[in-house]
Write a structure and sequence with these properties.
Layout (H helix, E strand, L loop, with lengths): L4 E5 L5 H15 L5 E4 L8 H14 L4 E6 L5 H14 L3 E5 L18 H11 L4 E6 L10 H13 L4 E6 L3 H13 L6 E5 L5 H11 L5 H10 L3 H21 L5 E4 L5 H9 L2
Parallel strand pairs: 1-2, 1-8, 2-3, 3-4, 4-5, 5-6, 6-7, 7-8
Helix pairs in contact: 2-3, 4-5, 9-10
The chain binds flavin-adenine dinucleotide.
Amino acid sequence: MSKTFSLEFFPPKNAQAEAKLWDVISKFSEYNPDFISITYGAGGGDRERTVEFTCRVKQDTNLSTVAHLTCVGDNEDELSQILDRYQTQGITTILALRGDIPKSAPEQKSGVFPYADHFVSFIRNRYPEFKIGVAAYPEVHPQAANREADLINFKKKVDAGADFAITQFFFDNKDYFEFISECKLKDIHIPIIPGIMPITDFKQINKLTQLCGSQLPMWLSKRLEELKDDPIAMQEFGIEVAAKQSQDLLDNGAPSLHFFTMNRTPAVLKILERIS
Ligand SMILES: Cc1cc2nc3c(=O)[nH]c(=O)nc-3n(C[C@H](O)[C@H](O)[C@H](O)COP(=O)(O)OP(=O)(O)OC[C@H]3O[C@@H](n4cnc5c(N)ncnc54)[C@H](O)[C@@H]3O)c2cc1C
């Protein structure tokens, strides 16, 4: 089984973080990722930074670059300006997302594109040459009415023209494989790349799971609780868990792996060294 993988980064917040991130990207590039992707802030703030940084990665490296782009609260012109810039820069793949609706302005839901499938249609029609990725949720999106409704909504994105999907992170591979089986039953056959979140920090992982609606299985949660005051043991345990999870996914048919790096190298590099 050959190992193919991609890496997700968020845009650096200042010059110092940017210098560090270039170093991280340079280390990872030796491992030949399929692509790297750069997240896009739905709340405003770091949007321009994302666009600028994504274009710089494309210009200054040989890495294939995927630009995340959210549609919540934006109109067609605003989104087209960004898509035009990406097209001019030679970026060919967009991860088309709705984004999180800001709690302070829920009325933005009624924007031009209320859900990602509308945004996918828009890109597919106006920019037919872009390859389009979308998000998938093996444990169901937190705002979905139920599992079946979420699956139907996922299919709308595929029918609108999505070429591939990347999942939210999860810790029980059963969730991923069940989701894949359900997709097949709905005639969804695009590659669905599992998202892997290496656990490195107790507080951070608890915060992230709450935010994203991913469950920590009981055995994992119990062990993390035991290790919470031993950061070195926690890190080693997190690497071991993610490496086993990744290997099992690849061995059982996952098309590749997508790592949420949190802009750091050590954990993901050690995981990559342990999988084949
Ligand atoms: C791999 C990955 C990368 C991400 N990157 C970013 C990022 O860079 N920036 C960022 O801000 N966020 C990012 N997110 C988070 C994402 O923006 C949020 O999860 C957001 O709440 C949903 O976005 P979506 O594109 O999945 O939305 P949608 O697919 O639109 O789904 C959102 C919710 O609406 C429901 N729904 C969908 N379509 C319909 C419909 N037609 N009618 C009724 N209900 C519907 C769905 O069931 C779901 O509950 C990422 C998520 C993943 C998995």
